[in-house]
Structures are given as C-alpha cells and as structure tokens.
C-alpha cells in the first residue's frame, strides 16, 4: 500500500513551545545540583538540536559530559516535556489538524517516524487530539534505530508500504524518504522558526511553506 510518513518535531509540532523551556529547566536543575557548571545554551542553540537523535543532541549540548550525566539530562528533559504537554503548552502548526483529518478521511494510512521516544510522541499527539489519526508511531528511542532512514525502513516493512510520501523539516527526513523510495516533501513554514541549516531541504522533491499546501501535492 501507499502511505504518508510524517516527522513530528518541526513538521507537525511547534517543538520550541515545549522544547525550549524543558531544556532550559533541565540545565538549571543540573546547574543547581552542581553537575553542570558551564553556560546554559541559548534558545538558538537549543533549537538547533531539534530533530536530532537523543545521542546526537546531548553530544552537541553536553559534549564533555560523561554518559551518566547525559542519561540523567535526557530523563529530566523528558519529564519536563511531558509535564508541559499536560499543562497544554504543546502546539501544532496552523492547518495541521484540518489537513491530517482530510488525508485520514480520504483513506490515506498515516504514520509518524520521529527521532524522539514513544512517551514524547504519544503524549504530544494525544494532548493535541491527533493520536487516533495514525496507524503507527515509530520512534528511534523505542526501536533503537541508528538513524531516520532505518526507522522509516522498519515502518515500511512492518506495514507492507510500497511507496507514498515522506514529510519532514530536516535533511535526515529527506534522506530517509529518498533511500526508502518515497516522494519527499520538505516543510519550511513562513513566519515560524526554522531548525537546521539554510540548505537543509535542498534535496527535497518539493517544499511547502504552509502545512495546508500538502493537499495540493498528495495524489488521491
């Protein structure tokens, strides 16, 4: 069957709404306990790691820390993110809900492939009322995959997906889609913070500047 596989952070979810305060609180707590003595990353540095695997992001934000401290930081961050979601701090981009509902009603099987963990992805989608729209939620944390390419491959194999679309905002999403034989759509929304480099989506088959534009590219 054909399907549409979505990245989560920076594609459906305005990650900075929860991610920036959660990271900041994590570093403040580590500083208070004396386990972190450096400068707390600014918002731009924090946003630059959105979409990376947890191993990659802590290697960037805590490059000199031991594995134990990185693990603790990761646990703290997740706890704070989940708490913020439950407080209603999560927010999807404009037109996400309407567009996903339309695709679902048109019979498209929808999936998530995220470099995060299951608790994060599930909570984000549940608190935004989107969880029921997806046939499967694949996260690097749950499947212990090396990269997004392997995660998308796993999703395709388990659901007999033969083609379709990969939608995301980072180069890893585009690479994963292309290496798995899918049409790739890059998300670069007007008026919102962008994560990654300026040429992040240069290899995408198409780029959309509003989530609703997706409907013009999806063939029924």
Automatic annotation (TrEMBL):
GO function term, MF aspect, one: phosphoglycolate phosphatase activity
Record keyword Hydrolase present: yes
GO BP annotations, alphabetical order: DNA repair
Gene Ontology CC entries for this record: cytosol
Alphabetical list of InterPro entries matching this protein: HAD-like_hydrolase_sf (IPR050155), HAD-like_sf (IPR036412), HAD_2 (IPR041492), HAD_sf (IPR023214), PGP-like_dom2 (IPR023198)
UniProt keyword terms in alphabetical order: Hydrolase
UniProt-listed Pfam families: HAD_2
Protein name per UniProt: HAD hydrolase-like protein
Species for this entry: Thermoactinomyces mirandus
């Amino acid at each position: 069957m054909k399907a549409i596989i979505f990245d989560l952070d920076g594609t459906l979810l305005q990650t900075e709404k929860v991610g920036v305060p959660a990271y900041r609180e994590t570093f403040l707590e580590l500083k208070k306990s004396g386990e972190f003595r450096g400068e707390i990353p600014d918002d731009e540095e924090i946003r630059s790691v959105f979409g990376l695997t947890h191993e990659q992001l802590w290697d960037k934000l805590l490059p000199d820390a031991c594995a134990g401290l990185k693990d603790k930081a990761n646990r703290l961050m997740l706890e704070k993110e989940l708490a913020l979601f439950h407080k209603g701090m999560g927010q999807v981009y404009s037109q996400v809900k309407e567009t996903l509902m339309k695709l679902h009603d048109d019979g498209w099987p929808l999936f998530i492939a995220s470099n995060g963990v299951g608790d994060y992805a599930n909570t984000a989608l549940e608190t935004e009322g989107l969880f029921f729209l997806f046939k499967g939620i694949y996260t690097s944390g749950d499947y212990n995959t090396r990269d997004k390419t392997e995660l998308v491959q796993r999703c395709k194999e388990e659901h007999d997906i033969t083609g379709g679309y990969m939608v995301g905002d980072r180069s890893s999403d585009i690479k994963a889609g292309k290496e798995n034989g899918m049409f790739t759509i890059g998300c670069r929304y007007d008026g919102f913070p962008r994560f990654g480099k300026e040429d992040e989506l240069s290899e995408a088959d198409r780029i959309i500047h509003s989530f609703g534009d997706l409907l013009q590219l999806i063939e029924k």
